[in-house]
Amino acid sequence: MSNTIEMFGITIHKFSMNGAIDVLQEWLQFGDNDCKYVVTPNVDHVVLLEKNPAFKQAYDHAAMVVADGRPVVLASRILGKALPETVPGSDLVPNIFERFQQQQLPLRIYLLGAMPGVGEVAAANIKSQWPVVEVVGILSPDFGFEKDPAYCDRICQSVAEAKADLLVIGLGAPKQEIWVDKHAHKLPVKVALCVGATIDFLAGNKPRAPMWMRKTGLEWLHRMCSEPKRLVKRYAVDAIIFPRLFIREWMKK
Q: Strand, helix or coil at 12?
């Protein structure tokens, strides 16, 4: 049985959280420094992929694609392509740290993203909770940095000099995926994770939804209420377009 499905024009790996971590641990311990990057599709990604060719290309080049959003998993089950569960980036990162901590394996990480000062707080929290995880680099890039090739080269050089195993990218979609796809050949890390607000969550800068909301697929509602100006319009558009895309997939079936 294949470990991937095709849906919404992308290939998604049928990994559980533990299955994804097993593969990532293998890459991090024994893989080459070839920047295998991971993307985590949710409803907003599926909608954006329809109209953003660079974003679609980044997805096509990703080494691992695991479903973040509960509606994406539900759609897979209705379409008879059942994904086992959601693997949100905000849970994937601490679960990787926990795996390496439990097995007492060293892990060098670089935090790229979030507002100035947030990465330092996240690094302190990581050191406190997972002592085997060493934060070897922190960078909060300037707004619009992705349009400055020289600035991007300096970021890549900083990551290279830090000799990190894992690059945690928290720049938001689709910027983080497009950027890492464009610059992966200059990033000598084993794995890069495109994980949105995860650095903020690690710093305690943004609160995660209560566990019951995460388990019932309502974390989006918590995030929307936390950041209404930024997210209400996005979620409203997604709520209109995603069902249309699902119907299209259903008709293909």
A: strand
Query: Taking the model in full, what pTM does it have?
Result: 0.93
- Calpha distance 170→240 (Å, rounded): 27
Compute φ and ψ for 240, nearest 5 degrees.
Answer: -85, -45
Pick out the chain residues at pLDDT < 70: 1-2, 207-209, 212-224, 227, 229-232
CB-facing half-sphere around the CA of 55: CA atoms within 13 A: 18
20, 99 Cβ separation under 8 angstroms: no
- Interatomic CA distance for residues 180 and 126, integer angstroms: 23
What span, in angstroms and rounded, lies between the C-alpha atoms of 34 and 62? 12
In tens, the pLDDT along 65-100 reads 999 989 999 999 999 999 999 999 999 999 999 999
Q: Is the distance from CB of 54 to CB of 175 less than 8 angstroms? A: no
- The rounded distance, in Å, linking the Cα atoms of 174 and 170 is 11
DSSP state of 185: G
- Please check whether residue 180 is in contact with residue 187, taking contact to mean a CB–CB distance below 8 angstroms: yes
For residue 154, count CB atoms less than 10 angstroms from its CB and return exposed for 0-12, middle for 13-18, buried for 19 or more: middle
Cβ count near 52 (within 10 Å)? 17
The helix/strand/coil state of 172 is coil
CA distances to 26, 57, 136, 194 from 171, in Å:
26, 18, 18, 8
d(CA 73, CA 59): 17
- Rounded to the nearest angstrom, the gap between the alpha carbon of residue 69 and the centroid of all alpha carbons in its chain is 12
CA 247 – CA 214 distance, rounded (Å): 26
Terminal C-alpha separation, the chain: 19
Q: What is the CA radius of gyration of the chain?
A: 18
